[in-house]
## 1
Amino acid sequence: MKRFVYIITDRNRKNLHVGMCTDLLKTIKFYGDMPTLFFDSSQQLNRLVYFEEINTEEQAMARFQQVSTYTRMQKEKMIRPVNPDWIDLTAGLNFESGIRVRPTNYGRPSIPSARRAVTF
């Protein structure tokens, strides 16, 4: 079973949290559902900036322990070559897995479901 070692951060890139999981999308959803579990609300971890897919549990645990001991500068040196703008990688994962996220309607009028035929 594949394992993922990931680094997640808040919107200000103040905290870098290293984790390991088997289902990356479910884990990211968990962080979104429980925003104040690890930190207060201003430091909500919601931006996946780095992840590695590893085939075996032993290799994943060794890599997780290694990355967990890194300093902030070492973690940034890992992130910058693959994600220089520190964008959230969750959107790409959603696209790859075939999950369609429906955009929310922010105050725009909805389109009526039954349209009238226009006659001239």
## 2
Amino acid sequence: MPREISLSDVKDLVGTEIGVSSWITVDQTMIDTFADATDDHQFIHVDPARAEAESPFGGTIAHGFLTLSLLSTMNYDCLPVIREQTMGLNYGLDHIRFGSPVRTGKRIRGHFKLTEARFRGAGMLMTTYDVNIEIEDEKKPALTATWTTIVQFDPKDRPEDA
């Protein structure tokens, strides 16, 4: 996949996996920082000794919302930039499922399949992706979701066939 595409290229990519991100290691420092930012200090996230002794996970695990929040990093890492884009916005997420916990020290990466792209108004393109976050060496994904974003662009750049 090229690192940059045009608005007119997007329609031909619908139905294909257009990006797989690099691996991200989810370590205890990342989990602790997220716990501080969200004030979610549940022991299964921040207390390795207690999590090993009292949880079924064998140690600490990442917050599900931490895993979800890493979609933005994964997106920037692997999805092509739309040349005409002036701004991108999150529109929403549907059908979010946390399939498997991300244990501390594991590596994860995102897979992005473009399922829909439709122009709205003069200067907006709505894109919908089926996303999943894979955990290295595990069968079940950490997360699956449907993610809709808005690409804004100057109306003069709208493809004629759109």
## 3
Amino acid sequence: MKPEFENTPLVKNESKKRFEIEVNGHFAFIDYREGRDQIILVHTEANPELAGTGAAAAVVEKTLHFIEENAKKLLPYCPYVFAYIKKHPEWKRIVDEKFERYDQL
């Protein structure tokens, strides 16, 4: 994560069902669904004003930390999150082994 995002707080916006960070009034976020033991990450997006800033990667990393800290298992259906985990395989530790594409990570 780029240093400029380290102190940006992650918000679990339950009304919108998304994890988000806000940067200068613009958002990077991940839509999620949550079960008792799992969090499904569905879609990652950043406002166009944040394109190329690293905000999307920052919201992913902060969300993965949140999932781990809350002892949940991850189902990374979002292609961006899936690619992020492939690039950072240490995060495979929080992916639910029952995830259908687990062996592709």
